[in-house]
Amino acid sequence: MTKYEVIIIGGGPAGLTAGLYASRAGLKSLLIERGIFGGQIVNAALVENYPGFPQGISGAELGSLMHQQAVNYGLEVITAELTEFTAGQLYNVSTTKGNFEAATIIIAAGSEHRKLGVNGEERLSGHGVSYCATCDGFLFRDLEVAVVGGGDTAITDALELTRHVKKVYVIHRRDQLRAGKTLEERAFAQPKLEFIWDTVVEEVLGEKMISGLKLHNVKTGQHSTLEVHGVFVAVGLMPNSQSFFNIVDLDDAGYIITDEMMATSAPGIFAVGDIRRNSVRQVSTAVGDGATAAMSAFKYLQERG
Hints:
CATH topology of the largest domain: FAD/NAD(P)-binding domain
Number of helices: 6
Oligomer: single chain
CATH class of the largest domain: Alpha Beta
CATH superfamily of the largest domain: FAD/NAD(P)-binding domain
CATH architecture of the largest domain: 3-Layer(bba) Sandwich
């Protein structure tokens, strides 16, 4: 079993920043990522609110640069699935690529897309049901699609889709958006967007591919069918905290509880980014979390001797 001083679980902006700071501090550090280095940000066609890029930067490029910088300073990285996480004299991390242990852990496992939980969604996932407009929008060129949700992600997705599709229906369970004012103004000015208010999706229709959505107006009780060729689900995120629930304290929604130094209820374990409670889920704050956690881990190791 290979020993490290710090093991970072998750390779998004928070995890990569933690790895950069820990490596620069001279700590033997390993980062474990199950998917793509850069995390969910790689799906963003353009990141416009990260400082230092006045013209914006693609999420894929930003994630790649963060990864490259951390590795340049000595961070070890592997792509593997976490299979078990246990506490002992050291923390043991079992993965599909081997077993590792460390005195400190930085959890940066992020979150995943929340699903609608309706009939047809799972069966037609990848056959018209998508959770990534940037990834799949081009597949629906000149067709009509729907976006479910009313927050920043949903409206960003809807605007992204207008680059490819004929029309986008935005289905929201309330009568006003939760997105920021700038996004809202852009959405209302976009002629390809049509808003369906006070409405939820009851079923995704279709056999081999989506043919439409069964809708329910929560105010009037009216049921209707909307014919679309695709639906993009953007109704929030769920923290990837299942592997840690018996080791660190979670809130009722499953987010890891930390203090201002990113410390959890377990000694030597820190949590950063989307997985921790009260995160605003922005790249800039994730980077700050990662830097704070790495410095906290360094201090913890010094005090532990």
